[in-house]
């Protein structure tokens, strides 16, 4: 796009994209559902450039500032989530990493830049009562025994942020995509004013996953998965926050004529998860608010200009599982 339309129009397009993607109407509709927290996923590239790694792009904060302001006007708190860190904190596409390795753990330069980004965020939002806290890394995946690099870097990040902002909550996702806290328990990892965020995706909500029938066995499996992921929060007597969960929608293209029946089963599995969360009185943020019809609470009309313009590209991505997430391959 940049080479096709030039930098001025490129910057204008993305500025308007962010503006229209989430506006005041979105915030107030979200609030009308009785929800009061949005986890705002950001990419390091918004604030930092690989070609100028020691510079924070201050102008990019205006997009974050705008969302926090809109949320506050609707009575919604914002959790700032570094969804993609320099080098990639895991080896998957959603951390903007197209390599088979998470290079954040291999190179100190990437770690230094991540600390610099969080220091800049902490300076910007310290004292802001509508910022709920800082989700330091989304779904980190450290293959080292006992996740030693992850826990060491978490300690470094926490110390750097606390020097600037001693008040906001720090959120630590578990290892292996937010699902494994065994290394935390083994190392007795703790931090003041912190929560340990699990990501409680149930296999019943995904292509090629089992069909949820609502049997005792199905309910026990969902409960068991949740308990495993929430165990460290319970062991440390800290608030439980399920930072991500959700289902992938079946469509006529992916599941044929029975797609509505498939979705009904997935919604039932989602309802069982929500029942457990109410029973345990935990906090949660669903993944995600808005997309093009994969998992969003709201999504674009299949006949919209966006979907029809990019239909051929979307079909190719689905066929070849280029995004991996939400495909049946």
Please outline what is shown here.
46% of the residues lie in helices and 15% in strands. With 329 residues, the protein is of the alpha/beta class. Helix 9 links the parallel strand 7 and strand 8 (240-244).
Provide structural commentary.
Helix content is 46%, strand content 15%. The protein has helices at residues 2-21, 24-32, 44-47, 61-73, 108-125, 148-164, 175-178, 182-187, 216-235, 252-255, 259-280, 305-309, 311-319, and strands at 37-43, 48-49, 52-56, 77-84, 131-135, 169-173, 194-199, 240-244, 283-284, 290-291, 298-299. With 329 residues, it is an alpha/beta fold. Helix 5 (108-125) links the parallel strand 4 and strand 5 (131-135). Helix 5 packs parallel to helix 6 (148-164) and helix 9 (216-235) packs across helix 11. The relative contact order is 0.09. The strands form three sheets. A seven-stranded parallel beta sheet has the order 1-4-5-6-7-8-9. Strands 2-3 form a two-stranded antiparallel ribbon. The mean pLDDT is 94. It is built from 13 helices and eleven strands.
């Amino acid at each position: 796009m940049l080479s096709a339309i030039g930098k001025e129009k490129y910057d204008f397009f993305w500025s308007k994209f962010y503006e229209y993607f989430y506006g005041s109407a979105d915030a107030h509709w979200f609030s009308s559902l009785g929800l009061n927290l949005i986890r705002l996923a950001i990419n390091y590239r918004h604030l930092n450039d690989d070609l100028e790694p020691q510079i924070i792009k201050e102008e990019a904060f205006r997009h974050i500032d705008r969302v926090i302001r809109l949320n506050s006007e609707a009575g919604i708190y914002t959790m700032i989530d570094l969804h993609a860190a320099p080098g990639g904190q895991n080896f998957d596409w959603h951390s903007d990493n197209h390599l088979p390795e998470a290079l954040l753990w291999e190179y100190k330069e990437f770690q230094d830049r991540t600390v610099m980004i969080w220091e800049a965020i902490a300076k910007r939002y310290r004292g802001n009562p509508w910022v709920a806290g800082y989700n330091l890394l989304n779904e980190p995946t450290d293959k080292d025994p006992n996740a030693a690099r992850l826990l060491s870097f978490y300690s470094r990040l926490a110390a750097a942020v606390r020097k600037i902002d001693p008040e906001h909550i720090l959120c630590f996702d578990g290892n292996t995509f937010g699902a494994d806290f065994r290394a935390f328990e083994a190392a007795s990892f703790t931090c003041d004013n912190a929560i340990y965020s699990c990501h409680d995706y149930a296999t019943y909500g995904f292509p090629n996953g089992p069909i949820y029938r609502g049997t005792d066995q199905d309910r026990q499996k969902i409960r068991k998965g949740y308990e495993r992921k929430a165990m460290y929060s319970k062991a440390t007597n800290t608030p439980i926050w399920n930072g991500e969960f959700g289902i992938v929608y079946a469509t006529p293209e992916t599941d044929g004529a029975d797609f509505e029946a498939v979705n009904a089963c997935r919604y039932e599995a989602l309802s069982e998860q929500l029942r457990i969360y109410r029973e345990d009185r935990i906090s949660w943020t669903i993944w995600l608010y808005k997309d093009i019809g994969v998992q969003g609470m709201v999504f674009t009309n299949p006949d919209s200009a966006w979907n029809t313009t990019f239909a051929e590209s979307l079909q190719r991505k689905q066929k070849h599982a280029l995004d991996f997430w939400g495909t049946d391959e």
